[in-house]
Amino acid sequence: MKEIIVFIEHRFSEILNNSYDALAFAYKWQSLRGGEISCLILTSEEKREIFNNLKDLANKIYLIKNKLLENYHPELYLKVIKDFLKEKENYLFVLGQTSNAYELASSLAIELSTPVITDINGIEKVNNEINFIRYFYGGKICGKINILDFNKKPFIVTIQSGSFKFEKRDIKSEIIEREANIDIEKNIEILGYEKEETGEIDITKSEIVIGIGRGLRDKKNLPMVEELAKKLKGVLAGSRPAIDAGWLTKDRQVGSSGKTIKPKLYLALGISGAFQHIVGIKNSDLIIAINKDPNAPIFSVSHYGIVEDLTKVVPALLKKL
Predict the structure, then answer these.
(1) pLDDT confidence band for 146 (50 / 70 / 90)
(2) Per the structure, how many domains does the chain have?
(3) How distant, in Å, are the alpha carbons of 117, 143, 155 from that of 135?
(4) What is the dihedral of CA 177, 182, 188, 194, to 10 degrees?
(5) 197 domain-assigned
(6) What is the pTM (predicted TM-score) of this model?
(7) Are strands 3-7 and 91-96 parallel, antiparallel or unpaired?
């Protein structure tokens, strides 16, 4: 039976949320095909304690340690992971969707002559076969991919952020630690990592988020949605068109090229609901959409919807609040 190996990515002594997306996919795969779940962590002895909360989330946790692995380095990580996977006969290697994951997944596929599928946002079982679901052409086409004889050979996948809902498991974990022998000459020097400036408000931690899109039409309409956000004790966020228009700053962008949020309430105002935006909000507890286009894709994921111009609905809401 295939071992499901989840790569745990970390930065600034914190596990990236994308790693939990990968774990959520692993749980889904396990429910469809079985197999043991393992976590693979490359780190240093000094940083090992940050992974204590992974206990009970996987059957095995591999800690491969070396001071040089404390931070991501493309050549070193590739070498260590490649050597680790070569010890395995049949596996599914899962990475959360990050720039580092893209780099690793494609490089490992070449080094190991292994199939790779990126940007997965769904999975289904049909007649004992597994279909991987992802979008193409900027989200305009949804495709299903099947790997021939997938149960007999290893392959690699990357998981689109927010595509699978992570729910904590209680699994008795076996911790396996080893030292990494790194004997390659580096051609790349990492000068350092810097934290992205997040601004005054972190929308990923807000329980109520009001999202604005192209339907706002003009920046002069921004004050009324700001007032709505204030009355609902929420924060403003936006789709890419709203950010590109300069209505909100980049740290407020939601979607595949922005942030993934999971608030208790997401109120989408004038957002059509392109795939890139939906992946960032689909795990919200409650989604309410207001859009004058009855065929807007946002209605396919919303729990409640109002087909109307937001400039008419928002003032009416403000009168009631």
Answers:
(1) confident
(2) 2
(3) 12, 6, 19
(4) 30
(5) no
(6) 0.83
(7) parallel
Shared domain for 154 and 15, answered yes or no, is: yes
Do both 144 and 281 map to the same domain? no
- Whether residue 239 contacts residue 213, with contact meaning beta carbons closer than 8 Å, is answered with yes
Q: What is the pLDDT of residue 27?
A: 95
Give the domain range for residue 90.
3-179
Grade residue 272 by pLDDT with cuts at 50, 70 and 90: very high
Residue 45 has what pLDDT? 87
* 222 and 87 together in one domain: no
Q: Is residue 305 part of a domain?
A: yes
Using one digit for the tens of pLDDT, what is the confidence trace for 238-249?
999 999 999 999
Residues 162 and 227 in one domain: no
| Among candidate residues 222, 279, 275, the one with its CA nearest the CA of residue 246 | 222
Instruction: Look up residue 7 and give its two tokens.
Output: 């790569």
Amino acid at position 191, single letter: L
User: Residues with Cβ < 8 Å from 33, sequence gap 6 or more?
Assistant: 1, 2, 125, 130, 151
